[in-house]
User: Which sequence fits this backbone?
């Protein structure tokens, strides 16, 4: 379920010159059958973040009316999708997943890491692996020219994107232990091009810090599917304040560009095991 | 005396519009500026038959006006600028299309901007007019400061008076900010009003600037201008500062006429050759931007050394990401600033990245810093590391991933990645192949003979293993090149590859890609629908909103429904 904080009311506050402070909606994850998902979207003016994740096992029980999914259908693992927004520019900064499938007689597993729209790793899930990068994920500029005084703001979102994965593919079963992660932080720097002006920036914003460690397994026999799911999550999002202090030729201006109280959610998603009868 | 030019100069207002200019350097999928019609294409009104003669060969008339100007500028509710100017404005036609204007007795005061030196404001400036009397641009004396140029451009552009026949005429004019449609109406035998409502284009890319301006001109019996009053209100928006609004009021009245003899006129004409070319754009130069960027980098990298940053990053190993993630991001960004300031440091980082004894974390840091730098030197340092025989597989992989995330591509980087794409190490081969797709995107159509996508397409044709084919499809997706569409279309029909193929459509423009995505979201399996909606999230989402609303109502897979919600949320941006 996606929770969302609309910007309209915040925009009205901003127009009144009031300090805006977005209070993230702290919606917990939704679990159904053997999987869980969660999503939220926060934005306030030029800054924000969103995420969604899925983890667990999907089976025939999730597609009861679709004949293309037979009793041995299995999709298991974890994946996440994260966006961040700085100075009005929103980018999907991460799509990370480790998913194993058994469908229509074909079994495979795939690991994919997409950073800022570019697939930087896509591989068959075969061995224990770890891949993560710490990079600049968004560059955004805001340049203002006011009667000869140029103010340039550079916004960046940087952080880590990746996952660890440990798969097992046997003759009668599939297992995946995976932890996709994304952590991203927004920073703004500023410069002003006039001898009678100065500018400074205070603070930073944790856009998101999300990990979804998951361990799923399934084995099949004629009677059904034996399964085990252990999924957790740890989310810290949209927390911090960025303030610009400007002195322009006798005038002082202070502007809070972003202020969020932060959302922290963590815990177990699903810890269960059993047998599904076909 | 040519009354239309007198009127033009007399109407000189101090356009705040030229002073408020927001510029976003980043490429925008949807430029906020309106489409850019060519302002000069609009036919100017024919010169009026009754126009008074311009400067004669042997003498002309100097007209002097008393002018006042007040303007304010607000960031949100806070006043940032408040200034007032009083001056005598001297107007001296040198020819039919050239007028010398000079301020004198300037009294200028205010806060919120760098006040130009009075001496610079009192330097003469030439107005270049076209055949119809429309302002083409201002010609400044060399070494006139930007603050003075801005003020004089605003002063002389805002009040421009383009003559016309009849009781109403329209003409496209320009000021320091952009082009606008000016509507002139004769409101009495000796009165003309002019209004402008919005820009048709801006001189520079950026947020839309809204303007509403009205001016009234009082004419003398001989057609010359006796007085004018102009008001302008502008507003625009900055992602950081929010609404920026300004107001301007300017008034002027003719106070003196004086005959100028031939010698003085000849002297002024002779000096015209020493002025710069005509322009209405007082834009910040690339050099100005570079100076601001460098100042920010120097502040960030002050006191930092590559070895110190590298050591600090290595010390984060083994600690929870939640504790060290922000520190890592800071270290990478600081390294990027360091590499931008000193390209030699970037080269050294490349050498270190290619060393045999490098830890995975250090490889991540060095490659991350070089990616953050974003410079050609940094890209070449990454390419150098990839080609080093001693480099660890992780270092080569990290370097390739960085090249995938940079806007730098040339023969050096493509060659390094092409070589690495043949590596025996599957992880190096994978990331390098994917990065080649990204490099194809950066190279675009101006590839200088480089065509990594052609090689990727050929390799895809040869590949039989679905995992390998999926990798090439992902590389196609990184490229956004429509030449990959036949391969993607074919892969969409293969259950094992369909989701990868759908996601590969995300950056490919055009109707065919749209049609394939439509088919994927309506007829695909859940994983394919999910990939397709995720791909749509990278595109201009507005055209997809009706599809999203329709799909949402019938989507049975929650994860796909969430992806649809995400697309809808994008529209709010």
Assistant:
């Amino acid at each position: 379920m996606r929770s969302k904080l609309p910007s309209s009311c915040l925009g009205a506050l901003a127009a009144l010159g009031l300090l805006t402070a977005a209070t993230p909606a702290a919606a917990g994850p939704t679990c159904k059958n053997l999987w869980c998902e969660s999503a939220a979207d926060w934005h306030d003016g030029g800054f924000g973040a969103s995420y969604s994740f899925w983890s667990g096992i999907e089976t025939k029980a999730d597609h009861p009316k679709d004949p293309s999914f037979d009793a041995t259908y299995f999709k298991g693992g974890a994946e996440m999708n994260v966006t961040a927004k700085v100075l009005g520019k929103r980018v999907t900064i991460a799509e990370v997943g480790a998913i194993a499938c058994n469908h229509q007689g074909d079994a495979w597993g795939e690991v994919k890491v997409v950073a800022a729209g570019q697939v930087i790793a896509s591989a068959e899930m075969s061995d224990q692996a770890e891949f993560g990068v710490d990079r600049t994920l968004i560059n955004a500029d805001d340049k203002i020219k006011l009667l000869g005084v140029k103010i340039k703001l550079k916004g960046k979102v940087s952080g880590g994107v990746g996952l660890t994965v440990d798969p097992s593919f046997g003759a009668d079963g599939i297992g995946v232990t995976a932890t996709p992660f994304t952590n991203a932080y927004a920073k703004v720097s500023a410069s002003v091009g006039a001898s009678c002006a100065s500018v400074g920036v205070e603070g930073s914003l944790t856009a998101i810090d999300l990990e979804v460690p998951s361990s799923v397994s399934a084995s099949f026999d004629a009677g059904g599917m034996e399964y085990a799911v252990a999924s957790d999550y740890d989310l810290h999002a949209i927390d911090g304040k960025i303030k610009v202090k400007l002195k322009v030729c006798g005038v002082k201006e202070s502007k809070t560009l972003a202020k969020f109280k932060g959302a922290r959610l963590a815990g177990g998603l699903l810890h269960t095991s059993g047998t599904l009868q076909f | 005396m040519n009354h239309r030019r007198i009127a033009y100069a007399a109407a000189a207002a101090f356009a705040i519009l030229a002073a408020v200019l927001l510029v976003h350097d980043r490429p925008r999928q949807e430029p906020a500026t309106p489409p850019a019609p060519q302002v000069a294409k609009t036919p100017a009104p024919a010169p009026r038959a009754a126009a008074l003669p311009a400067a004669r060969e042997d003498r002309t008339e100097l007209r002097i006006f008393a002018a006042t100007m007040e303007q304010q500028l607000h960031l949100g509710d806070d006043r940032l600028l408040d200034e007032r100017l009083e001056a005598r404005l001297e107007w001296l036609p040198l020819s039919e299309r050239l007028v010398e204007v000079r301020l004198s007795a300037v009294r200028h005061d205010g806060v919120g901007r760098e006040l130009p030196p009075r001496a610079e404001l009192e330097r003469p400036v030439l107005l270049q007019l076209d055949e119809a009397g429309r302002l083409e641009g201002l010609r400044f004396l060399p070494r006139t400061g930007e603050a003075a140029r801005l003020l004089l451009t605003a002063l002389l552009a805002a009040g421009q008076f383009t003559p016309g026949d009849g009781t109403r005429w329209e003409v496209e004019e320009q000021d320091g900010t952009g082009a606008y449609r000016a509507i002139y109406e004769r409101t009495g035998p000796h009165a003309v009003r002019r209004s402008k409502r919005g820009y048709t284009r801006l001189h520079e890319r950026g947020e839309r600037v809204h303007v509403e301006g009205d001016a009234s001109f009082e004419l003398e019996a001989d057609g010359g201008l006796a007085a004018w009053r102009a008001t302008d209100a502008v507003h625009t928006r900055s992602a950081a500062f929010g609404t920026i609004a300004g107001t301007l009021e300017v008034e002027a009245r003719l106070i003196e006429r004086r005959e100028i003899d031939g010698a003085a006129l000849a002297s002024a004409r002779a000096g015209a050759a020493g002025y710069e070319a005509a322009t209405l754009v007082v834009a910040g130069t690339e050099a100005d931007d570079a100076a601001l960027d460098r100042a920010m980098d120097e502040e960030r990298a002050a006191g930092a050394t590559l070895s110190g940053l590298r050591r600090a990053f290595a010390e984060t190993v083994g600690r929870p990401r939640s504790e060290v993630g922000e520190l890592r991001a800071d270290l990478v960004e600081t390294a990027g600033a360091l590499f931008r300031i000193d390209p030699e440091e970037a080269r050294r980082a490349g050498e270190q990245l290619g060393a045999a004894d490098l830890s995975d974390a250090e490889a991540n840091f060095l490659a991350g810093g070089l990616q953050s730098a974003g410079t050609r030197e940094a890209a070449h340092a990454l390419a150098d590391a990839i080609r080093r025989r001693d480099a660890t597989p992780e270092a080569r992989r990290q370097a390739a991933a960085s090249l995938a995330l940079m806007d730098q591509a040339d023969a050096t980087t493509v060659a390094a990645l092409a070589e690495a794409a043949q590596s025996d190490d599957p992880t190096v081969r994978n990331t390098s192949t994917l990065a080649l797709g990204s490099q194809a995107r950066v190279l675009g159509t101006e590839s200088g003979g480089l065509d990594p996508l052609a090689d990727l397409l050929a390799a895809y044709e040869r590949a039989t293993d679905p995992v390998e084919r999926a990798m090439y499809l992902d590389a196609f997706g990184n490229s956004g090149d429509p030449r990959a569409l036949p391969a993607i279309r074919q892969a969409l029909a293969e259950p094992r590859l369909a989701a990868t193929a759908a996601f590969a459509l995300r950056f490919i423009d055009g109707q065919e890609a749209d049609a394939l995505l439509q088919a994927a979201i309506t007829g695909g399996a859940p994983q394919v629908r999910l990939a397709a909606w995720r791909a749509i999230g990278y595109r201009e989402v507005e055209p997809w909103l009706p599809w999203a609303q329709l799909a949402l109502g019938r989507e049975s897979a929650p994860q796909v429904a969430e992806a649809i919600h995400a697309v809808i949320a994008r529209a709010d941006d």
